[in-house]
C-alpha cells in the first residue's frame, strides 16, 4: 500500500511530530521480492549461487582481475564490480578502510495479521530512551518493523545474538515499556524473518577522498558506501550505482568501439575511463547521503551533549530540507 505519512512519537512525553515523506510514491516492500523481480529479468544462468569470494588478484601478464572463490575455483573478468556488501573483499583489494561500527544494533522482522491490521498506511516511530521501534505496513495484512537499540558495553554487550527465538526474547525485554500493540506485534512476528545486525557506516570523509578504482576494478552498493538505515537510502543508492555505472560503460564503449580501437589495451583504457566517470558522478551524492545518515546515527547513540549539539547544528545547516535526498534523479540508462 502507498504510505500517506509518517509520525515520530516520544515514548516519555507522548508528543507527536509529523514527518514529510517527500514527493512521489512511498511504499515498503520485501527485499526478497525486489531481488526476485530483478533476478527473473536476467537470462537463465546469469546468477551463480554459493560462490563466496575470498580474494581478488590481477593477472601479471594481462592485468585482468580474477575473483578467487571458497570452493577453490576462480572467475576471470575484464571488469570486476564488487557488490559484495559491508565486508567486501573487492573493497579490501582497493585498499579501502574497513567500515566502522555505530554503537547501535537493529532487529528487523515481519508480522502477518491474517484478519488484517488496523494500523492504517502510516510509517510510525516510537522513540524511547534506549531504543526506537518503527512500524511500516506493506499491505493490509503484512507489517515490517524494526527496533534500533543502543549497544551496551557491559558484560556480553557487544555480542549480537543470531538465534531467532533469543532475538525475539531480548527484543521484547528491551521494549517492555512500549505500547502493547507494538509488544504484541513483535511477539507474533515470523521467527524466520528475524535478524539482528550491528549498524555500520563508511565515514563521509573516506567517501570524499578514497580512490574507488584500481585498473578495471571498482565497487558499488554497500561495498562502496555502507551507511546506517536512518534515511532508508542504502538500497536506493545501490540501484543508482548500477544505473550510473551501466550508463558510463555503455557510453564510453559505444563512442570508442570501432575497427581501429578493438585492441585490448585501448578497450581496457576506455573501461577505466568509464569507471572514473562513474566514481566522479557518484561521489558527492554519496558524501551527502553518508553525512546525513552519519549525523542521524550519532543523534541516536550515546554521543554526549556537545556532540549532539554539533550534530543538530550541522543537520539544520546542511539538511534543512529533510526530504531533498528523495528527489534526486540519477538519470536514465
UniProtKB/TrEMBL annotation:
Pfam family, one: FAD_binding_3
UniProt superkingdom: Eukaryota
Domain FAD-binding span(s) in chain numbering: 39-256
Entry-linked InterPro entries: FAD-bd, FAD/NAD-bd_sf, MOase
Keywords of the record: Monooxygenase, Oxidoreductase
SUPFAM superfamilies on file: FAD/NAD(P)-binding domain
Single Gene Ontology MF annotation: FAD binding
Family listed: Belongs to the 3-hydroxybenzoate 6-hydroxylase family.
PANTHER family named among the record's database cross-references: FAD/NAD(P)-BINDING OXIDOREDUCTASE FAMILY PROTEIN, MONOOXYGENASE 1
Name of protein: FAD-binding domain-containing protein
Amino acid at each position: 500500500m502507498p504510505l500517506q505519512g509518517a509520525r515520530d512519537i516520544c515514548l516519555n512525553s507522548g508528543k507527536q511530530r509529523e514527518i514529510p515523506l517527500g514527493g512521489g510514491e512511498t511504499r515498503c516492500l520485501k527485499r526478497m521480492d525486489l531481488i526476485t523481480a530483478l533476478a527473473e529479468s536476467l537470462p537463465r544462468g546469469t546468477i551463480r549461487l554459493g560462490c563466496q569470494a575470498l580474494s581478488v588478484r590481477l593477472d601479471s601478464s594481462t592485468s585482468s582481475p580474477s575473483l578467487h572463490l571458497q570452493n577453490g575455483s576462480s572467475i576471470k573478468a575484464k571488469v570486476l564490480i564488487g557488490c559484495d556488501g559491508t565486508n567486501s573483499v573487492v573493497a579490501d583489494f582497493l585498499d579501502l578502510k574497513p567500515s566502522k561500527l555505530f554503537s547501535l544494533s537493529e532487529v528487523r522482522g515481519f508480522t502477518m495479521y491474517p484478519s488484517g491490521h488496523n494500523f492504517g498506511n502510516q510509517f510510525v516511530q516510537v522513540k524511547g530512551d534506549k531504543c526506537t521501534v518503527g512500524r511500516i505496513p506493506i499491505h493490509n495484512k503484512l507489517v515490517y518493523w524494526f527496533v534500533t537499540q543502543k549497544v551496551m558495553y557491559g558484560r556480553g554487550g557487544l555480542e549480537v545474538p543470531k538465534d531467532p527465538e533469543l532475538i525475539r526474547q531480548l527484543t521484547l525485554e528491551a521494549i517492555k515499556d512500549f505500547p502493547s500493540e507494538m509488544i504484541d506485534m513483535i511477539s507474533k512476528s515470523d521467527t524466520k524473518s528475524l535478524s539482528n545486525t550491528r549498524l555500520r557506516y563508511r565515514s563521509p570523509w573516506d567517501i570524499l577522498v578514497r580512490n574507488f578504482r584500481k585498473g578495471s576494478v571498482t565497487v558499488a552498493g554497500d561495498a562502496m558506501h555502507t551507511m546506517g538505515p536512518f534515511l532508508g537510502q542504502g538500497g536506493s543508492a545501490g540501484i543508482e550505482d548500477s544505473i550510473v555505472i551501466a550508463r558510463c560503460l555503455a557510453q564510453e564503449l559505444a563512442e570508442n568501439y570501432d575497427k581501429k580501437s578493438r585492441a585490448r589495451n585501448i578497450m581496457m583504457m576506455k573501461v577505466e575511463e568509464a569507471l572514473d566517470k562513474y566514481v566522479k558522478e557518484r561521489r558527492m551524492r554519496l558524501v551527502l547521503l553518508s553525512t546525513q545518515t552519519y549525523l542521524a546515527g550519532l543523534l541516536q547513540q550515546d554521543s554526549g551533549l556537545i556532540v549532539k549539539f554539533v550534530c543538530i547544528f550541522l543537520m539544520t545547516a546542511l539538511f534543512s530540507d529533510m526530504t531533498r535526498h528523495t528527489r534526486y534523479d540519477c538519470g536514465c540508462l
